Amino acid sequence: MKTIGFIGLGIMGSRMAANLQKEGYQLYVYNRTKEKASSLIKNGAIWCSTPKELGEHSDIVITMLSTPEVVKEIAKGENGLLFGMKENNLWVNCSTVNPSFTIEMAQLAKDHQIQYLDAPVAGTKGPAENGELLFLVGGDEANIKEASPLFEIMGKKTLHLGNVGKGSAMKMLINQLLGQSMVAFAESIVMGEAMGLEKETLFNVLLNTPVVAPVMAAIRPKLENGNYEPNFPLQWIQKDLHLSSISAYENGVATPNLNATKEIFAQAKQHGFGHLDFTAVYEFLNLKK
User: Fold this and answer.
1) Coil, strand, or helix at residue 267?
2) Residues with Cβ < 8 Å from 150, sequence gap 6 or more?
3) Quick one: which H or E segment has residue 159?
4) Interacting residues of 226 by C-beta distance below 8 A, sequence separation 6+
């Protein structure tokens, strides 16, 4: 059984790593905040003091990190991952990053004789915990075959979308639609309440029409109860929308709705909502009601 290195133990990564550990994989772990690795270490994971050290001990390394800047620092910074990995070992990057960046990382890995997979996931805290993520993968068939046993533990389905960059491209579109759908729905609820309709009535009617994205039914309890414990922090969907806007610019595509949505989340973040679930944009839009 291959040894697995896991870097990035936040809401998603900690649960993905725990599922691998439950299936008997020996984990080497690294996170900028060691405390987030405590439960994994308690169950047998081995802590590494640097990404380089982790790379030295791992056959396959999985990264689940917040931003392209963090990914690059982990990969090529002082004591970076790529300075420790052995030739032809596999780096599986599950971080949500823009396609041009993931192509850059693939080339960087190639320069170090390291194999690379572009493998972001669709899903939040619950699916990560239950091993029900959707892996959106770009890369070579041979590398996907090597990583498939891990994907099968952490997820319910793997889609091979083409070469490196295509997985990240699809993830951009998914999160773009999620953010836009959330803002559109939240605006409608705020407006409906302003016109005197009860929130429960708004949910009961709007969620049973074909014009509302199905995912909105799943977030209903958060809006009804005002419980914005983060499954997907607002600051990260704002980051993803920004990355999507970069991809739009790089490809010469006009995306006015995307950019408007991105700025709404940016304003919510500026007002202190960044650490809450992205659904808290409803509370931000409701501030001046």
Assistant:
1) helix
2) 4, 20, 25, 60, 62, 92
3) strand 155-162
4) 283
Query: 281: closest CA among 190, 183, 207, 192?
Result: 183
pTM over 0.90: yes
Work out the widest C-alpha separation in the chain, in whole angstroms. Answer: 65
Residue 69: Cβ within 10 Å count? 11
Catalytic residue among 52, 166, 171, 222: 171
**Distance separating alpha carbons of residues 63 and 6, to the nearest angstrom:** 6
Q: What is the pLDDT of residue 288?
A: 65
pLDDT, tens only, 58-78: 999 999 999 999 999 999 999
Could you confirm whether 171 is annotated as catalytic? yes
Three-state DSSP class for residue 246: helix
Give 83's DSSP letter: G
How many residues are there in the chain?
A: 289
23-36 pLDDT, tens digit each: 999 999 999 999 99
